[in-house]
Specification:
Elements lengths: L2 H13 L12 E4 L6 E5 L12 H14 L7 E3 L2 H4 L13 E3 H9 L4 H12 L2 H15 L21 H14 L5 H4 L2 E4 L2 E4 L4 H4 L3 E9 L3 E10 L2 E10 L2 H16 L26 H5 L15 E8 L2 H12 L2 H5 L3 E6 L6 E8 L1 H13 L5 E3 L1 H10 L17 H16 L1
Antiparallel strand pairs: 1-2, 1-9, 3-4, 5-6, 7-8, 8-9, 10-12, 10-13, 11-12
Helix pairs in contact: 1-10, 2-5, 2-6, 4-5, 5-6
Length: about 425
């Protein structure tokens, strides 16, 4: 089918779907990864939560270890309790079990396994914190000025951010620096014993030219996708953030890619020419209400509170407290705090505190001194104060969600769930 016809079909398909083009809440970018030229972009320098697209940087760091010879594809990697405890998507290898680096990369990039991301991080750098430091060091080398990584799997943390521009730079670097590992991004399925786990990237099955790369989903980010396709020897890449479903992100990516192939080669601005917004200038959008149909603000449970901490102020609503917390943590000081961020319901009519806990005394005192010097509110919270709050405030009810695990398509999960219910009735 001619390229123009393909574009018209893709556009008609998208316009006729439940979601229109305008329904994409997040930024987007279409570019040539070989030249860095930008064919189109919308808010590509705006901060966003990357979710499992994070695993592209995890892979980049591991590929570097393989290239340097400090890791081997056949090397056996142990599964720690921390790795095993990660939520789905996951493979579920028992604690003290092992997997090869090759299998781990397949699980990471084909099935988006959160537990295996931790296995790779701990094997590569000794700890998740050390690995995150390496991720951020690589981001700086690549010019990813709007990105900050806290973990290797992309599970939500308000300090864990990127931009479409930055992810474009990373995709281009992966293709250029490690062409020998490109098969991981186009692999149809992951074999786990007798099971065949399909690639999370449904665009590979939807668009004949598609050949990579990685999906991402958490409630806060919506459905993200870094996608590549090749036509007549020309490769293009698209970044989609904040789609409303797995199908929606694939349709948007296909529309951009088909449109890109219809355009003749011409000198264009480069990815690096796009300006990232200053970190902390705005808080990334939160897609939770749109894609997860639940209240976006999770209140901390008393059993989670501990250690020393800091409060960035008390607010009447949890939503206002959450906005304040995410803004404070996107400052240079906030991104370096190693504790746990969250919203705490205060006793009586104290409202909600934007806080961090699981810090030590020195870091708590230093953090508040720095924030106060910048005229930002900050109070140190002692372990005794946390204990008093826990004793006076009941735990919130558990948050339930009908959405899929990170990286998967909601529609497919619902269909499977429906089939199971019908079987039970029979």
């Amino acid at each position: 089918m001619p390229v123009l016809c393909r574009f018209i079909v893709a556009l008609a398909m998208l316009l006729g779907a439940t979601h229109s083009i305008a329904a994409a809440a997040g930024p987007s970018l279409l570019f040539d990864p070989a030249t860095g030229e930008v064919l189109s972009q919308d808010r590509a320098g705006e901060p966003w939560y990357p979710a499992s697209i994070t695993k592209l940087m995890t892979a980049y760091v591991v590929f570097g270890k393989l290239h340097a010879g400090t890791m081997k594809l056949e090397q056996k990697l142990p599964v720690s309790e921390l790795a095993h405890a990660q939520p789905p998507s996951k493979i579920g290898i028992p604690v003290s079990g092992t997997v090869s680096t090759d299998f781990a990369l397949q699980a990471l990039l084909v099935y988006s396994a959160n537990d295996i991301a931790y296995v790779l991080a701990e094997a590569a750098s000794g700890s998740v914190q050390n690995f995150a430091d390496e991720m951020n060091a690589q981001a700086r080398k690549l010019g990813m000025t709007g990105s900050h990584f806290v973990n290797p799997n992309g599970l939500f943390d308000p300090r864990h951010i990127t931009t479409a521009r930055d992810m474009g730079l990373l995709v281009a670097a992966l293709l250029k620096d490690y062409p020998e590992h490109q098969h991981y991004f186009s692999q149809d399925f992951l074999a786990v014993g007798k099971r065949k786990l399909s690639n999370r990237n449904s665009l590979l099955r939807q668009m004949p030219e598609a050949d990579g790369m990685k999906t991402g989903f958490v409630c806060n980010s919506g459905f993200n996708l870094a996608a590549t396709a090749t036509q007549e020897g020309r490769k293009l890449a698209a970044i989609i953030f904040g789609a409303n479903s797995g199908k929606h992100r694939a349709d948007l990516a296909e529309m951009l890619l088909v449109d890109g192939f219809s355009r003749p080669a011409a000198p264009r601005p480069k990815i690096a020419d796009i300006a990232n917004m200053k970190t902390g200038a705005i808080v990334p959008a939160d897609m939770t209400k749109t894609v997860c149909k639940q209240k976006p603000i999770a209140i901390a449970r008393s059993k989670d509170l501990g250690g020393w901490g800091v409060s960035f102020g008390n607010y009447e609503s949890s939503a206002t407290a959450d906005m304040a917390l995410r803004g404070r943590l996107l400052s240079p000081d906030g991104m370096q705090l190693p504790g746990t961020p969250g919203i705490i319901r205060m006793p009586g009519k104290g409202g909600y505190a934007a806080a961090m806990w699981n810090l030590d005394q020195q870091k708590s005192l230093a953090a508040c001194a720095s924030y106060r010097a910048a005229n930002a509110p900050c109070e140190v919270i002692t372990p005794d104060t946390f204990a008093q709050i826990a004793a006076l405030v009941p735990d919130p009810p558990p948050v339930t969600s009908s959405t899929a695990a990170q990286g998967s398509d909601v529609s497919k999960l619902k269909k499977k769930s429906t089939r199971k219910k019908k079987k039970k009735k029979n």
